[in-house]
């Protein structure tokens, strides 16, 4: 339920409450991470690319990617949520995930849970072909964690941002399947918010 409530405006307050609960009940953390991964593959990070050789149908692909079924208008047949709704939902989960990792936990040292965020960033940059979902995940994650990660990792984080700027953004521009608006939001995040 908490994941469904996540949005840009309430991600940090929800994350504070959730992390407080996981400190008190440590087993809750792994359940939460599993729930996030079940809701959004990008938190792992993992992305499944559509291929007719792998999937029998587009429905099978959408199911694997965690698209939701929505009721049709006026009680009509269920259909898949739109790509736009899916992308908004994935961004919301990534915003919440990023907020979780930036919560300041005194017993965890100055970097807190940011080490998990660093690992996530390395994995998505090393193992994912730049695509719309990669750009959505990176934008939402950096929007929530970017400032704290720059504080914690300094020049190493600056190098990561430069890598995104010089390699990921051009690859996104070159891919005709990538939504331009998503790419532009990621570029804006890099140029305005994090430098």
Short overview:
67% of the residues lie in helices and 2% in strands. The chain contains eight helices and two strands; from the N terminus they run ααααββαααα. A hairpin with an 8-residue loop joins strand 1 and strand 2 (79-80).
Quickly list its features.
67% helix, 195 residues, 8 helices, mainly alpha
Please describe the topology of this protein.
Blueprint: H1 2-5, H2 11-24, H3 27-39, H4 58-65, E1 69-70, E2 79-80, H5 83-102, H6 114-127, H7 132-174, H8 180-193
Antiparallel strand pairs: 1-2
Describe this structure in words.
The model has no long low-confidence stretch (mean pLDDT 86). The chain contains 8 helices and 2 strands. α2 (11-24) packs across α5 and α6 crosses α7. A hairpin with an 8-residue loop joins β1 (69-70) and β2 (79-80). It has helices at 2-5, 11-24, 27-39, 58-65, 83-102, 114-127, 132-174, 180-193; strands spanning 69-70, 79-80. It has a two-stranded antiparallel sheet. The termini are far apart. The protein is mainly α and 195 residues long. The radius of gyration is 17 Å and the shape is globular.
